[in-house]
Amino acid sequence: MKGHHLVAACVALFLCMGLSPKVQSQQSAPPPPAPDNSSSSDIDNESVFRVNVDMVQLNVAVIDRKGNYVTGLRPSDFEIVEDTIPQKMATFEEGNQEPIMLLNPGQPSPKLSASPVADANSGPTSGQPQFGSAGANVFILFDTSNYMYRGFVFAQDAISDFVRSLDGTSKIAFYSYSRDVARDSLLTGDRSQVLRGVRSTVAGADAALYNALLLVLRDAGQYTGRKVIVVFSNGPDNASMVPPEGVGELAQSEGIPIYMISTREANKDPMSTAVFERMSASTGGQAYFAKNWQEQEQAFSSVRDDLSHLYALSYYPQPNPNRGWRTITVKLVGEKLKNFRIRTRNGYRPRPTGFTADTPADTALAR
Fold it and tell me: Measured between alpha carbons, how far is residue 38 from residues 112, 223, 359 in Å?
């Protein structure tokens, strides 16, 4: 219990400090922060709770017994429960298809008014969500620390191939890190700009992975649409100022899956392996540990396939007195679907009333 409170305190501290700066890009500027339209709701006759009701987005992978992706499912095939409260799906999207609106977003419940923000395919215009085009926003984070001295060029080649292979509707941002973080290419659909960023990287010093990951999360959180982070790391973190537990919980709450790819064999660094597996699983992503560069390329290919087969579901939370961690459960409905496996994030922490995704100017963590 003490550990859980510590993690919550760390996340709250990160949000208050605003450790990552605003993203400003001519190619794809983020939306302004949503206005605070939160309102008080009478949950019962004795208590009044004040909360922000943001659209919650889930990236869901459905896998059969053979490990194949299950496609062609309909909204009615899914059931979403938050804590013990059934939810009504607001939007549905399969792969890179256009999202389908299923619920009037202006009235998610008779007792709570919606305040959509960039946590999902939503925008702040007149209390109605603005749905982005199909395709994911992919944020790539590349380890350029001294762990990468061997095979540095091979890693650049693998990332470049991954960038070229992504669906044309996707936008990509590229970051690199050692002790500091570099925004080598802000979010853009221009593949050549991203590739120039990849080729401009040079090997550095110590590795501050969780510092860098926190900054990428805060940058990604300012954009609408589906978002994922793909991390290439070849060694443990030995220079961060923030703990991985807090960063992982923030990723869960923001609804951003994290895919971890490492060429370092799992048995050589069991502590980092456990952190990578836990962080990716809790956010709905996956972790890969490649023994050689060929397996690394296969890992990038698996990430690409996963992105093209995810279902994107969203909902406006029904009245819920729980202002702490909320557990999300997604189930498949029907006898024919019961043997399929679902992979998605397992919960989130609601933003406090008045919270804005806006962050202060640049910090020492990025260059």
Answer: 8, 21, 20
Burial of 194 (0-12, 13-18, 19+ CB in 10 A): buried
Q: Which of residues 360 and 301 earns the better pLDDT score?
A: 301
Q: Are 149 and 203 in contact (CB under 8 A)?
A: yes
d(CA 229, CA 172): 10
Residues 6+ positions from 52 with CB-CB distance below 8 Å: 36, 38, 115, 117, 350, 351, 352, 353, 354, 355
- Tell me which residue has tokens 């990552």: 20
- DSSP letter (8 states) at residue 366: B
Q: What are the residues whose beta carbons fall under 8 Å from the beta carbon of 201, sequence distance 6 or more?
A: 142, 144, 156, 176, 182, 184
In whole angstroms, give the CA distance from residue 40 to residue 219: 30
Question: What pTM was estimated for this model as a whole?
Answer: 0.77
DSSP secondary structure letter of residue 65: T
Q: Which residues pair with 49 in a beta bridge?
A: 41
How many Cα atoms within 13 Å fall on the side-chain side of residue 61?
Answer: 22
Instruction: For residue 101, list its beta bridge partners.
Output: 91
Q: Where are the alpha helices (DSSP H) in the chain?
A: 2-17, 152-165, 191-199, 209-220, 244-254, 270-283, 293-309
Q: How many angstroms separate the CA atoms of 63 and 340, rounded?
A: 6
CA distance 30 to 139: 14
Question: What are the structural domains, with CATH classification, of the chain?
Answer: 137-305 (3.40.50.410)
Q: Over the stretch 275-325, which tens digit does the pLDDT of each residue have?
A: 999 999 999 999 999 888 788 889 999 999 999 999 999 999 999 999 999
Cβ burial, residue 267 (10 Å; 0-12/13-18/19+): exposed
**pLDDT tens digits, 57-112:** 999 999 999 999 999 999 999 999 999 999 999 999 998 788 889 876 444 443 33
User: Two tokens at 229?
Assistant: 């982070």
